[in-house]
Each structure stands twice: as C-alpha cells, then as structure tokens.
Write a structure and sequence with these properties.
Elements: H1 4-33, H2 35-45, H3 49-57, H4 63-72, H5 79-91, E1 95-99, E2 105-109, H6 111-126
Antiparallel strand pairs: 1-2
C-alpha cells in the first residue's frame, strides 16, 4: 500500500516520462522532416563524412594534409571521396572553400560546421 505522497510522486514521474517521450518524438520528427536538418543527417550517413568533418575541425581541409593524416594513422580515404564529401559539406554551409589553383581547393570549417563536429566528437567520446 502506497502512502499519499508516494502515490503523488509516482504520478508525477509517470507524467514527466510521458512529456519527455512526447518532446523526444517532436524533436525526432523535426529532425527527420526539416529540410536543412534532414540534409545534414543524410550527409553524415555517407562514407567518411564524419572523417571529413573531423579533418576540418583539425584544420586539415586540404587533400595533401588530409591524406598525410590518414596515412599516418593507417586509415583510408580516397581523393574522390574527400572531394565529394567536402563539396557536400560546403553546400550545407558547414565549410567554405578557398581556391588554391584552378584544380585545388582548401576547405575551412564554418561556425555551424564546428558546432556539429564538436557535438559529434562529444558523442563519440561518451560511447
């Protein structure tokens, strides 16, 4: 048999859990349906997208620097994949490019890109 205060506390906890679930569902729906957020989500799902965001975070937005870093750590990333991801990241406003010569670009992370990359880094560190 529950005391009146325990019963009230239990009801409050159930109500909070329902509100939390509803809020979570609303947030998820917004992420899946908002054009900008769903575009970022789709980009992150692609091969090496997180790698490229992390490279930008470390100021390795040039292919030569990115390749050296990946080779040093025995990781793979093709130049075609690097360029494709950087173009997508730039298109989403998470990076900006500077033309080095007619064929080469140097990418730098924007404040929004930094926010996303740092959030991903925090998530990975917690796992």
């Amino acid at each position: 048999m529950l005391l009146k205060t325990q019963e009230t506390r239990l009801k409050r906890m159930e109500k909070t859990a329902k509100m939390s679930t509803k809020t979570q569902e609303t947030d998820i729906t917004r992420i899946l349906t908002d054009p900008k957020l769903s575009a970022i989500k789709a980009m992150i799902e692609k091969d090496h997208a997180i790698d490229c965001l992390f490279l930008l975070l470390m100021n390795k937005g040039r292919w030569k620097e990115a390749k050296a870093y990946m080779n040093k750590h025995k990781l793979t990333l093709s130049d075609g994949t690097f360029r494709a991801r950087m173009i997508e990241i730039e298109h989403l406003g998470l990076a900006k490019s500077t033309q080095i010569d007619p064929l080469k670009k140097y990418y730098t992370i924007t404040s929004e890109g930094r926010k996303i990359a740092e959030s991903l880094l925090q998530i990975m560190k917690q796992i």
